[in-house]
Amino acid sequence: MKVALLSPKGPLYRNRGGIFKQSLRYQPLTLTTLAALAPPELDITFALYDEGIEDIPLDLDADLVGLTVITGCAPRSYELARHYRSRGIKVVLGGPHVTLLPDEAAQNADAICVGYAEEAWPALLRDFTQGQMRPRYNQGHDFKLTNLPFPRRDLLNGRRYLTQAVFEATRACAHDCEFCVVPTAWGRRQFQKPVEHVVDDIRRVGKRRIIFIDLNLISDRAYAGELFEALIRLKIRWFGLATSLLGRDRKLMELAARSGCAGLLIGFESICESSLGDARKKFNDPSRYRALVNDLHALDISIQGCFVFGHDHDTVEVFDQTVQFCVDAGIDLPRFAILTPFPGTPLHQRLDKDGRILTKSWDLYDGQHVVFRPAKMTPRELQIGHEKAWRDVYSVSSITRRLARSRTQLPIAIMANLAYRYYAQHLETHYTCDWPIGFREAA
Ligand code: B12
Ligand code: SF4
Q: Among 99, 205, 293, 367, which residue's Cβ finds the most Cβ atoms within 10 Å?
């Protein structure tokens, strides 16, 4: 049996004209994980396509096509699903957007897979081979990330990515920030792979620099401690995601550094306490941000600092103030996003109830477009302010001042900053989606 697994992309990331050169992309784990989960007795030949690095063939030779759907790529995913179904190929959809809006997705597929898929996907494949595929498969929460096969990284072309050394140790996050898709889609229950399994996977891949894509590696501190201890003996350098709470656990922070942590993506979200209250992310404390940055730099850990614009307490001053903070604190790699009310999240429900959602064109839900009416500025001010903040924080003088303050892993930091400078300067020209007519002018 032939199964094709596809990862469609939104306009910002699509191969031709994509804003980032493909060499900057790391290899995601979705398709390679799904391929590995196939029951061995079924004799399936998989073909994997990631539209971020290559075109997806429209004349696929497959019995079944599976697409992973994130919200910003939902229209593209549905377009591809329609195409393959019109050629008589059965299509199954899964992933975050399908989990958030299963009824919408079901209209565009022969079957959908809601939630994670560790048990549901093998069950679907078995049913399909017997001609009994059901329209909907729900993955319950009572499964474990144990006894799992390693992802089939070999099925994607490694030369097209910056690295294939991408790993996942945990799923889900214990927090429930208002805008975040994670607790809404997958709940707050923690799923963890056995530490030895993660270590074996890293050994097999055999690279000295690796990336963890876990949403919050320190969500369960006991597990994080166990994992970091085990990483020490591998003598690797790793990059991952954590919350600012790491700053309040000196022991864990030092252990992370000893385990080879070279860089962390931290969701600061805002430098304004009231905005963090809006976001239900009060555990972030702006008065502690600088100490956290200094402590991490002292341990030779660089920081990708993420900030979100458009909270209800944000005024037009927020852009300059946030850029200034990044410069003063020496954030190695700042990243800005526009607050995005992903469907199903508490934020979406609140704004929808208040009539503040401007569009439900999902291709605009990519963190770079204004899709709701902000409280203290116009949509246009938010869009333009966000674009300007990107340009300002990646100006030559800002890069120089930030990196002079940080002095952490300078060669990599310079390269990454130049790449983001390119991104910042080309952001507007890559807005290829159709906005609601006249929105930009009228807003
Ligand atoms: C790699 C990655 C990317 C890559 C590629 C993503 C892609 N699939 O196209 C890039 C860098 C392009 C990217 C971009 C963005 N991303 Co992203 N990304 C990730 C990340 C870090 C890892 C994905 C991964 O490998 N997961 C590991 C695998 C094993 O888990 P999984 O994908 O969830 O798959 C499991 C189930 O969901 C299910 N499943 C998934 N797909 C399918 C398909 C089928 C057929 C079946 C049966 C099952 C199934 O089975 C799997 C096993 O259980 C996730 C966070 C995360 N840790 O998951 C965010 C995540 C997917 N991204 C997210 C977001 C918000 C974005 C951006 C908007 C960020 C931004 N501001 O720029 C952009 C969107 C750009 C666009 N419109 O094109 C959100 C999705 C929200 C949503 N509502 O869709 C996530 C969940 C992060 C988050 N904190 O909320 N991202
Ligand atoms: S801490 Fe991060 S991953 Fe966890 S709920 Fe908040 S935004 Fe989502």
A: 293
* Alpha carbon distance 167, 183 (integer Å): 21
Residue 241: enclosing H or E segment and its boundaries?
strand 237-242
The residue nearest atom 8 of ligand 2, judged by CA position, is: 180
Tell me: do 133 and 169 sit in the same domain. Answer: no
Give the number of other CB atoms < 10 A from CB of residue 377: 21
Q: What is the pTM of this model?
A: 0.95
Q: How many structural domains does the chain have?
A: 2
Q: Which atom of ligand 2 is nearest to the CA of 281?
A: 6
Contact of 213 with 245, CB cutoff 8 Å: no
Co-location of 64 and 118 in the same domain: yes
pLDDT tens for residues 83-101? 999 999 999 999 999 999 9
- Interatomic CA distance for residues 434 and 364, integer angstroms: 8
Do 332 and 402 meet the contact criterion of CB atoms below 8 Å apart? Answer: yes
One-letter identity of residue 5:
L
> What distance separates the 2 farthest-apart alpha carbons in the chain?
63
Measured from the Cβ of residue 392, the count of other Cβ atoms closer than 10 Å reads 19
For residue 342, give the ligand 1 atom closest to its CA.
83
Tell me, yes or no, whether 61 and 199 share the same domain.
no
Q: How many C-beta atoms lie closer than 10 Å to residue 411's C-beta?
A: 7
- Name the 3-class secondary structure at 178: coil
Ligand 1 midpoint to CA 29 (Å):
9
| Ligand 2 neighbourhood includes 183 CB (under 6 angstroms) | yes
Do 228 and 134 sit in the same domain of this protein? Answer: no
Would you say residue 160 lies in a domain? no
